[in-house]
């Protein structure tokens, strides 16, 4: 952002996701949408939310292991983006920036949780939901044994991710689920490339060790 | 290639970060080593299962909640902007101006006020008093205080009769004090 942009009077943006249409943004990349928002087009922020809400919730959920809390943290991520977008260095990738914010919030959450170890009601509820989920929601072409095995494998995989140390887990999720490059992961986690490679390798090693008994 | 080398650089191979020759040597090792082949299969399958999971689904109120938070943020920003209506520099200049005015004001240094208020006249000055005893009418407090004291404390030109000048007499006559001592007289309209 140029100094002139930084000094430009702030226009009051009003984000309204109900405003349509936003189809014209589909041909814009993130940096162009960001620029539109900074130029006063309030609908551009809705487009950014559209592009990242589900991805971020999944990323944060995989990192903190709690769906409701993940939603709260992603809300906070978007609020921070809205508040500080004028300070975003547009020579960098927007996706890296937004993932950095979400990742830092997730790390803080895990740190706070380790300081105040509590069994969260949401965690109990999540486990209860998993135990009582009806079978008919799953693939009906599979036999009951297969269904059971598939569900169990999912649970083991989820558990394996949660068992990874925090700094390994974030790198693992960013690579395996989000498909981020090593360079982006290094930027998001504020580490160097060598650290990313080493953490990812260890994370995969631990992950494979946990789930191996479940895979033929 | 040894198994430890394979495991040490597995991620780079898995993510396509190796050159063609190196990648080929990894593939050769997988074909020849059952343990490393299984390791490769487990990691790939685990990743697939992870990606198959839809993960968290956004609740319907997610965006409404976000919009509400952002509206509050906008409101807060607007409120912060209103009292200042300017930058910190403007506020600083304003404070500096007030401080300068205070320092330059004569009252601040204990000087005389610029405007002197006129005295209050309670006794109509007689023509003789206007000359030499002009200061007397100003001394209301001193004249009241000296009522019980000796007459010598009054200014030498003070004439007691002046107290009963026409206007003061009228005030006295219509006061409750006068009604106690007046003689009863009957005055009827048209009888005189």
Number of helices of chain B: 10
Low-confidence stretches of chain B: 130-152
Q: What's the pLDDT, averaged over the residues of chain A?
A: 80
Distance between the termini of chain B: 149 Å
What does this structure look like?
The complex is a heterodimer of chains A (216) and B (192). Chain A has helices at residues 3-7, 30-38, 43-64, 67-84, 94-115, 121-131, 144-163, 166-176, 182-188, 193-211. Chain A has 216 residues and is mainly alpha-helical. Chain B is mostly helical and 192 residues long. Mean pLDDT of chain B is 71; it is low at 130-152. The interface between A and B is large, with 43 and 39 residues.
SSE blueprint and pairings:
The complex is a heterodimer of chains A (216) and B (192).
Chain A: H1 3-7, H2 30-38, H3 43-64, H4 67-84, H5 94-115, H6 121-131, H7 144-163, H8 166-176, H9 182-188, H10 193-211
Helix pairs in contact in A: 2-3, 3-4, 3-5, 4-5, 5-9, 7-10, 8-10, 9-10
Chain B: H1 3-8, H2 10-14, H3 20-32, H4 34-52, H5 62-84, H6 88-104, H7 129-132, H8 140-145, H9 166-173, H10 176-181
Helix pairs in contact in B: 3-4
Give a brief rundown of this model:
The complex is a heterodimer of chains A (216) and B (192). With 216 residues, chain A is mainly α. Chain A has helices at 3-7, 30-38, 43-64, 67-84, 94-115, 121-131, 144-163, 166-176, 182-188, 193-211.
What descriptors fit this protein?
heterodimer; A: 216 residues; mainly alpha; 67% helix; globular; B: 192 residues; 10 helices
């Amino acid at each position: 952002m140029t100094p002139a942009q930084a000094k430009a009077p702030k226009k009051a943006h009003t984000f309204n996701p109900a405003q349509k249409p936003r189809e014209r943004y589909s041909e814009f990349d993130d940096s162009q949408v960001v620029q539109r928002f900074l130029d006063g087009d309030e609908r551009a922020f809705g487009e950014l939310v559209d592009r990242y809400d589900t991805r971020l919730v999944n990323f944060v959920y995989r990192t903190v292991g709690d769906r409701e809390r993940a939603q709260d943290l992603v809300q906070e991520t978007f609020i921070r983006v809205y508040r500080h977008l004028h300070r975003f260095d547009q020579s960098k990738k927007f996706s890296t920036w937004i993932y950095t914010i979400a990742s830092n919030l997730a790390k803080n959450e895990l740190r706070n949780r380790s300081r105040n170890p509590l069994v969260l009601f949401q965690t109990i509820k999540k486990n209860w939901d998993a135990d009582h989920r009806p079978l008919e929601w799953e693939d009906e072409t599979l036999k009951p044994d297969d269904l059971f095995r598939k569900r169990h494998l999912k649970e083991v995989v989820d558990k394996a991710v949660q068992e990874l140390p925090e700094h390994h887990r974030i790198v693992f999720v960013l690579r395996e689920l989000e498909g981020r490059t090593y360079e982006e992961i290094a930027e998001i986690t504020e580490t160097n490339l060598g650290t990313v490679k080493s953490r990812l390798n260890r994370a995969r090693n631990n992950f494979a060790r946990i789930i191996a008994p479940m895979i033929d | 290639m040894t198994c430890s080398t394979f495991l040490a650089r597995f991620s780079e191979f898995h993510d396509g970060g190796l050159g063609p020759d190196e990648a080929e040597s990894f593939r050769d090792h997988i074909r020849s080593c059952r343990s490393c082949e299984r390791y490769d299969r487990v990691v790939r399958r685990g990743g697939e299962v992870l990606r198959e999971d839809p993960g968290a689904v956004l609740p319907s109120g997610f965006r409404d909640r976000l919009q509400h938070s952002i509206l509050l943020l906008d409101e807060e920003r607007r409120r912060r902007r209103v009292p200042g209506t300017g930058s910190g520099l403007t506020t600083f200049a304003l404070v500096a101006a007030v401080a300068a005015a205070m320092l330059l004001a004569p009252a601040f240094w204990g000087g005389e006020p610029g405007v002197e208020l006129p005295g209050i006249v309670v006794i109509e000055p007689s023509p003789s008093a206007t000359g030499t005893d002009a200061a007397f009418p100003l001394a209301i407090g001193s004249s009241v205080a000296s009522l019980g004291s000796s007459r010598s404390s009054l200014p030498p030109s003070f004439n007691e009769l002046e107290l009963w000048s026409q206007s003061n007499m009228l005030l006295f006559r219509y006061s409750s004090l006068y009604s106690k001592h007046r003689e009863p007289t009957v005055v009827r309209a048209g009888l005189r």
